[in-house]
Amino acid sequence: MSQTNLLAAVGRVLIALIFIASGASKIAAPEATQAYIASAGLPLPLISYLVAVIVELGGGIAVLLGYHARISSLAVAAFTLAAAVFFHNNLADQNQMIHFMKNIAIIGGLLQVTAFGAGGFSLDGWRQRR
C-alpha cells in the first residue's frame, strides 16, 4: 500500500471520528439536543435533530469507510458549515471564534476528500479494483 493511500485513510478516520462521536452523543441525549437546536432559533427541532444524527453518524461512517466518499464528505462539509453559521456565530466571543474556525478547518479536510477521493484503502478503492 502506498504512503498516499495510508495517509488518506488516516485522514478520513481522524475527520470521521468527531462526527461519529457527536452523532452517538445526540442519540444518547435526544431531548437535550433538540432543546439546544431550539435555543439556537432553528425551526423544527425534531427534524433538525434527525438530520443531524443521520448526517453525523451515517455520513461519518461513510467517510470513515470511504464509501461514496466524495458525496458523503461533501454532505458532511455542508452540514458542518451550517453548524458553524448557526451555532458558532458570535465571533466576538473568542471561544465561539475558535469553534467556528475549527469547523472551517474540518470543512477544508472534508473538501480534500471530496476533491481527491478516499484513496485506495477504502470501499470506493476496493470497488474500483474489482
Annotate the secondary structure layout.
Elements lengths: L2 H26 L1 H10 L5 H21 L3 H19 L6 H23 L6 H7 L1
> Can you tell me the overall shape?
globular
Spatial separation of the terminal alpha carbons: 16 Å
Query: Major sheet, described briefly?
Result: none
Ranges where pLDDT stays below 50 over 5 or more residues in a row are none
For the residues shown, what is the average pLDDT? 95
Secondary-structure element order, N to C: HHHHHH
Structural class label: mainly alpha
Q: Name the beta content range.
A: under 5%
Beta-strand segment tally: 0
Rg, Cα atoms, Å = 16 Å
The helix content, as a percent range, equals over 70%
Structure annotation, total helices? 6
Textual characterization of the structure:
The longest helix has 26 residues, at 3-28. The chain contains six helices and no strands. The chain is mostly helical. Helices cover 82% and strands 0% of the residues. The two termini are 16 Å apart.
Q: What characteristics describe this protein?
A:
130 residues, mainly alpha, 6 helices, 0% strand
